[in-house]
Q: What sequence folds into this?
């Protein structure tokens, strides 16, 4: 759901461009402790010293001096604890996304961020009673300083690349989730992020930390209206999976065609821990996203499941990174992409198996489905194996919809467009089925609408 019209929200302190003054303004608005301001200012220095990445898709049209890095709504209720306290204009957007009803039925927590401000925050009491922390990042900086110092920009250093340092300098709000030892949460937890300002830069930060033998499933939805003016989304996600813990991180990024979606996501997985990445990327003008799993200790594992769909000259340059450091680690990557209307899909796979990663196993499967004769799909693997006892399997395919499949469906009275949609949904089903039922249904509807265009 693109939600192409913006929401009627009045903002204050809107000023384009990046400077130390803007960074300090963001820090003051978030009530940062001094140590966080120091990180921001150091990151700004690193950002100014680094050049734009040259191997990525062309980013020359992205003018950072025209981007708004901070936008504060005048009239919204920050951190409303109940649905009744949320402004009506924002409720309407939530209603379109089914969030209130979904929360009532199954979700343990719901949070929402509009631009630089969090507007809604709800956590079930039974989770707070067992010491679960699920707060806005800016609030967590004040209430849980020692935990934040332990995790913030540790998986993704501020020197990682230019947009990681930019993020560290100007991040606003986001999610901090901390699951204590041995606690298993069966209900999904959710956050929703909305980019509502024209020529906006959004930089939410997500930290999820599971202590040993804990389990959780976290879902993030993102959206933006169309303005035909370039916007920037440079998100950072840091996941810390303890020994024998299991985390499923699901992310559906549904941006508009004028958004540059440049994110950094990384997980550190301890002994016998497991991380599932389930991702969907749709309709951003340019997407660059390479979730990374660092299998730090024995028997740790990772699954990366990913789908992409865009059209109208859009580019998705994405993939997965897995670094096997210790023994008996395993990883699996499955990606599915749909190409239509001059869309270019590039899938990069980075695999590194260290000398110490004895008897490790890694596999990757990349499949591209091309709807027309003008689109393209490329796979670019990088594989480094330093341990001879490990096993690696790599498979990639690209092709058009099978006309025999369409003919069979049409011979049963199904129209061609509906038949195409059925074939595409079947193609994507290995990943869509991993989403909760209502999200899978929404994804199928969105895909069907795009195929009809």
A:
């Amino acid at each position: 759901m693109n939600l192409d019209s913006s929401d009627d929200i009045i903002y204050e302190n809107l000023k384009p461009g990046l400077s130390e003054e803007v960074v300090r303004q963001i820090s003051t608005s978030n009530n940062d402790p001094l140590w966080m301001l120091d990180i921001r200012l150091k990151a700004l220095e690193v950002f100014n010293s680094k050049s734009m990445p040259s191997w990525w898709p062309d980013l020359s049209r992205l003018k950072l001096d025209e981007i708004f890095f901070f936008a504060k709504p005048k009239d919204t209720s920050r951190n409303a604890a109940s649905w009744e306290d949320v402004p009506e204009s924002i409720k309407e957007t939530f209603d379109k996304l089914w969030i209130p009803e979904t929360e009532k039925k199954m979700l343990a927590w719901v949070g929402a961020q509009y631009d630089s401000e969090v507007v809604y925050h709800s956590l079930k009491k039974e989770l707070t009673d067992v010491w679960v922390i699920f707060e806005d990042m800016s609030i967590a900086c004040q209430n849980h300083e020692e935990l934040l110092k332990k995790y913030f920009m540790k998986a993704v250093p501020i020197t990682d690349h230019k947009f990681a340092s930019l993020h560290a300098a100007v991040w606003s709000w986001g999610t901090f989730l901390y699951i204590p030892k041995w606690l298993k949460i069966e209900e999904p937890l959710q956050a929703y992020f909305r980019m509502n300002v024209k020529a906006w830069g959004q930089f939410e930060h997500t930290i999820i930390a599971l202590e040993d033998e804990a389990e959780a499933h976290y879902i993030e939805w993102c959206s933006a209206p169309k303005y035909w003016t370039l916007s920037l989304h440079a998100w950072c996600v840091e996941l810390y999976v303890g020994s024998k813990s299991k985390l499923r991180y699901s992310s559906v990024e549904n941006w508009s065609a004028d958004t540059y979606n440049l994110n950094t996501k990384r997980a550190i997985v301890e002994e016998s821990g497991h991380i599932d990445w389930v991702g969907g990327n749709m309709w951003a003008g340019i997407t660059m996203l390479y979730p990374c799993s660092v299998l730090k200790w024995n028997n740790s594992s990772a699954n990366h499941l990913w789908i992409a769909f865009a059209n109208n000259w859009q580019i998705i340059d994405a993939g997965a990174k897995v670094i096997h450091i210790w023994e008996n680690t395993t990883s699996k990557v499955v990606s599915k992409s749909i190409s239509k209307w001059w869309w270019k899909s590039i899938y990069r796979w980075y695999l590194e198996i260290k000398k110490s990663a004895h008897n490790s196993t890694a596999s990757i499967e990349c499949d591209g489905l091309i709807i027309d004769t003008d689109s393209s799909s490329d796979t670019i693997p990088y594989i480094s194996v330093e341990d001879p006892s490990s096993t690696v399997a790599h498979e990639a395919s690209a092709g058009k919809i099978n006309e025999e499949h369409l003919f069979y469906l049409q011979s049963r009275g199904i129209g061609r467009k509906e038949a195409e949609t059925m074939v595409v949904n079947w193609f994507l089903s290995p990943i869509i089925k991993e989403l909760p039922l209502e999200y899978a249904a929404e994804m199928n509807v969105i895909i069907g609408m795009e195929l009809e265009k």
In short: The two ends are 15 Å apart (CA to CA). Residues 11-289 form one domain.
